[in-house]
Write a structure and sequence with these properties.
The protein is of the alpha+beta class. It folds into 2 domains: 6-226 and 368-396, Rossmann fold (3-Layer(aba) Sandwich); 230-355, OB fold (Dihydrolipoamide Acetyltransferase, E2P). The protein is built from 9 helices and 21 strands. Helix 2 packs across helix 3 and helix 3 (109-122) crosses helix 4 (138-150). The protein is elongated, with a radius of gyration of 24 Å. The two termini are 29 Å apart.
């Protein structure tokens, strides 16, 4: 459907002395699957709540399809929200749960039957329309919540950790289904998560937030292969971060010194930096050779641990300069020639070695956000208690703008 363009301009939100969102700017075109990721307390859920209208910004603007939402209450905004807690009505059937908002809008019975039937088929629940929520699995209940939000034809669907309560296998399955569903309905999805794999799997673009700031916005492959800052590199995926000294230019790259005697060439990232720098190399780009192997961009090391991961084998190596490096070797069915204590040469390809720029300027805050956690834990985004979120969602369900169902992350 047409519409769904979102502009966020210099958006700021404070809770007492805590600046939860600090002057961020985002442009989200119509029909895009846009994800916001970051550790707990970074401001991502607060941003989503301001777009929904559940929180008022201290400054800045939220513009939906050219209209400033500053004085528009949640029920007047053409957005719906789905949270981690499905909050579907236990006494209603699947059909009646999905039809609830349409009935509140006094839609004709024939149109309700048609629209609910179509959306239930789309989420693969048509054969379960007469069941109660207690007769459904967790994944099926999540589909009911999605159907109830989508049946109202919002311009934008806001999703805050909607898969967080599901087991790992079901999460992976629903990631693909959710992306397919978004492409079918063609509306803008704004998806908040701290799960990097979810964001990389489903998104057209990703914004990485830290401490109330946006560190980088880019498509999944670019943000993984070309992180702009150390924080982004460390947060998205597994990273080898090496400390080096950038000594000067070398052709199209920069000459690096590790320790006192080892020299490397890096051709990616901010090669104009000089002095102390941090370099990134993803584990799948690290190559292990026999200790006798010679060549550029190689450092000797000792294997400390070999970890079988199923689809691959992770080899943890301690370099001669003292830095740890992980290499990821695809599982081809053959045994790898390295074991604990093996001496190896670690090849760090110049085109894969990336010099990172500085992260966004941190602020003094007690929000609890980390600055480099690769696997953040916890589910709270540091601003609002769960009870308030549940009350907000319950109050807005089925209203004119129907902001649906929620528990805040």
């Amino acid at each position: 459907m047409a519409g769904g363009q979102v502009e966020i301009v210099s958006l700021t939100k404070r809770f007492g002395d805590v600046v939860a969102v600090d002057g961020i700017d985002l442009h989200i075109p119509s029909g895009e699957f846009f994800s916001i990721v970051g550790p707990s307390g970074c401001g991502k859920t607060t941003t989503l709540r301001m777009v929904a209208g559940f929180e008022e910004p201290n400054s800045g603007r939220i513009v939906l399809d050219g209209v400033d939402m500053q004085h528009t209450p949640p029920y007047r905004r053409n957005v719906n929200t789905v949270f981690q807690a499905y909050m579907i009505f236990p006494h209603l059937t699947v059909f009646d749960n999905v039809a609830f908002g349409l009935r509140r809008r006094h839609v004709a019975k024939g149109e309700i039957r048609q629209r609910v039937g179509e959306i239930l088929e789309m989420v693969q629940l048509g054969h379960l329309a007469a069941r109660k929520p207690s007769q459904l699995s967790g994944g099926q209940q999540q589909r009911v919540a999605l159907a109830r939000a989508l049946v109202l034809n919002p311009a934008v669907l806001l999703l805050d950790e909607p898969l967080g309560a599901l087991d790992a296998k079901l999460r992976k399955q629903l990631q693909l289904e959710l992306k397919s569903l978004q492409q079918q309905v063609g509306i803008t999805f704004i998806y908040v998560t701290h799960d990097q794999e979810e964001a990389l799997t489903m998104s057209d673009r990703i914004a990485v937030m830290s401490d109330g700031h946006v560190e980088q916005v880019a498509p999944p492959r670019e943000i993984y292969d070309e992180p702009a800052t150390r924080f982004v590199a460390d947060f998205l995926g597994v990273s080898n971060l090496l400390h080096a000294v950038a000594e000067g230019p070398d052709g199209a790259g920069v000459r690096l010194r590790l320790g006192e005697e080892f020299r490397l060439l890096a051709r990616a990232g901010d090669v104009a930096l000089r002095g102390a720098v941090t370099c990134l190399l993803r584990p799948e780009r690290v190559e292990l050779d026999a200790y006798e192997q010679e060549g550029p961009n190689r450092l000797p090391g000792i294997v400390e641990r070999v970890v079988f991961l199923g689809h691959s084998v992770q080899v943890l190596v301690r370099l001669a300069v003292g830095e740890p490096v992980a290499a990821l070797i695809p599982n081809t069915g053959e045994a790898i020639p390295y074991g604990q204590g093996s001496a190896v040469q670690v090849h760090l390809p110049a085109d894969a070695l990336r010099v990172l720029g500085p992260s966004a300027q941190p602020r003094a805050t007690d929000s609890g956000a980390g600055t480099g956690a690769a696997s953040p834990g916890g589910a709270a985004d540091g601003a609002q208690p769960e009870a308030k979120s549940r009350a907000t969602a319950a109050a807005s369900t089925g209203a004119a703008g129907d902001t649906t169902i929620g528990e805040e992350k």
